[in-house]
Amino acid sequence: MDVEELIKRARQRRNRALTEHESKKLLAAYGIPVPKEAVAADENAAVRAADDIGYPVVVKGLGADLLHKTEAGLVCLNLADSSSVAAACGQIRNNAGDALEGFLVQPMLAGRRELLAGLFRDPQFGAVVMVGAGGIFTEVFSDVSMRLAPLSEPDAEEMLDELSAAPLLGSFRGEAPADRARIRQILLGLSRIGVECAEVAEVDINPIIISPAGEPHVADALVVAGEKTAAPPPMPQVAANLLGDFFHPKSIAFVGASGQIGKWGHMLFTLTVSGGFAGDIYLVNQKGGTIAGRPVYKNVGEIAGAVDLAVVTVPAAAVSGLIEEFAAKKIRNMLLVSSGFGETGQEGKRLESRLVESARKAGILIIGPNTMGICNPHIHLYCTGSHVRPQPGATAVVAQSGNMGTQLLAFAEQQGIGIRGFCGSGNEAMVTVEDFLEGFEKDSVTETIMLYVESVKDGRRFFNSACRVGRSKPIILLKGGRSSAGHEAAASHTGAMASDVRVFDAVCRQAGIVQVEHPMDLLDLSAAFSSVPIPEGNRVAIMTLGGGWGVVTADLCAQYGLAVPQLAESIVSRLDGILPAYWSRANPVDIVGEKDDTIPMVAIEELLRWDGCDAVINLGIVGRRILLRRLVDSVSEADPSYSEEALASARQMFDAFERKYIAHIADLMERYQKPVYGVSLLTEAQDRTVTPVENKRYKGLFYPTPERAVKAVSKMVEYGKFLARQHHCGTP
Description:
Blueprint: H1 3-11, H2 20-29, E1 38-40, H3 43-53, E2 57-62, E3 75-79, H4 82-96, E4 102-107, E5 113-122, E6 126-133, H5 138-141, E7 144-148, H6 153-162, H7 180-196, E8 200-210, E9 216-218, E10 221-225, H8 240-246, E11 251-255, H9 264-274, E12 280-284, E13 290-291, E14 294-297, E15 309-312, H10 316-319, H11 322-329, E16 333-336, H12 346-362, E17 365-367, E18 373-376, E19 381-384, E20 392-399, H13 402-415, E21 419-424, H14 433-442, E22 448-453, H15 459-469, E23 475-479, H16 493-497, H17 500-511, E24 514-516, H18 519-529, E25 540-544, H19 547-559, H20 569-576, E26 589-590, H21 598-609, E27 615-619, H22 624-638, H23 644-672, E28 676-679, E29 690-691, E30 700-703, H24 706-725
Parallel strand pairs: 11-12, 11-15, 12-14, 15-16, 16-17, 20-21, 20-22, 22-23, 23-24, 25-26, 25-27, 27-28, 28-30
Antiparallel strand pairs: 1-4, 2-3, 2-4, 5-6, 5-8, 6-7, 8-9, 8-10, 13-14, 18-19, 18-21, 29-30
Helix pairs in contact: 3-4, 6-7, 8-14, 13-18, 14-15, 15-17, 18-24, 19-24, 21-23, 22-23
């Protein structure tokens, strides 16, 4: 029986499920190894099958409606002879009733290690392959790893490594290591089903029993058929050059301009003007007159000059009426700030849909509606709903939340993180996060992409774009609205453990997206990626002014999967020459608060040149100037024997050392191509996470706490592993 016939049979049944035996036939057709087994119509046939297979055996009830056989008493294990097989068949017949179609006889599989593998279809991302700890406690432990199909060999291997139960796949209590190649074969077979057999909605293989010799055996399987439906047509993609025009207008018309402070129509143009935008600005309001001493046009047709961008703040009901005016004026770009569209319910969605249809016909591209604005610091364009002006840089930011976007820009401004461009994507009626990803991919200035995402319009396009973009530009993402709603699937282990958030997390891991948990993590990672080289491994050297701080940081490294290796004897020997006899002689390197400013300069270079580490964390060197300045201030008040000139010189010396130290670090990073992450002893209001160094590629990077520094290291290590893998990513 071929696969097509099996699926046809399943779709004719009420529960759309294949029997276990039929399910295994389908799996075998896709290269998944299944054990020898036999179907028996009655007790006598079951005994003959058991004699042929060899004892001990397992007998199961077989039937299209018998999905949960163990719970229903339809599985009898470890049957040692013909009489026990016959008795088991009688018991199963009584328990199954009219649903029984026959018996399935299998060899008894021995093993204390069990896995689950499965396939399901996510409505956004398509076919998803799963592997996890199996058996009757599958849902309890919920130890699973997922990837989108198609899988590569490295994908399958990483899935196994991610499991908390991964150590069980090695040598276990005298049993041989599991044959990982055969397990990968199962996962790759499921991937093929997901890609080649669209009619299969779900596959559940549980358990996969690992024998004492390490051989994986498929003990039970369930395949559920679904409808082969055409995917909805994707949203039209926006060309990168068209999207780029939004960020580089030479003239802007504010349609819905207002003279009332606090209104969007007043706020956006005043912030744009005060931000230093050098292009032409036109104010449009149907009442005409003047606002802020500027003439107000009653419609865009009255404007003599060209308009590159229209910023629209009129009520939602009036927006559609602008399309014809914009088309006549040849305005091609609309930043639609107005709310009252899809976010308000069904009527708003219909209004939004009609607007998009008319805009497409007119050749007008809309960002929004319900966007909080756009900015490009490189041309002093700050057209957002908040007075936030980050400096120019190489980090592109897209946020699906106005408040989150405001917060991210404010953090960036405060911490000295340069921004390439920002957009609040709003409802994404025409321009989606996928378009922004691909647009910033083409932008030569963008080096890092930062996203706040609550949902995506086209899951597969998002995944494929992220896979490609992430190879050259790190994508740092914070996911909002982490739904716990389960995936709608058949009543199986696979379906029970599928969820929106798990699938999205799997997408991020597979695509190399650096996913973070908190808004500040976005900025911390953006600061790191824009300031230091990517570490080639997870080995960290720690240099600290105090032992306790170093111990805490070492503990954090262990927590975040970073290694703190022992110092090489050559390093110890060289540091012995500059440190007192009681120094730690270990990693973390405690430089014991010595006042000789050459010590941290020499010590950090010794650590960076050491081939036993991939990154250095230094604690307490920067920020010490604050304590020393306070000491000088106290001396000034308490001891008149010191001249103010001498004390002022001391203050300048402390500041000068930190500048010299940061410049030294930037030079060393360029020389050794290893990152240095700093933790400040103390900070002042003017201190920043990032400190540029003149004529240097890399920058000083200093966090206020060890935890933030360690998290940044771990995420950059994670991204470095993605780059090193260079495996297949995305659908052909």
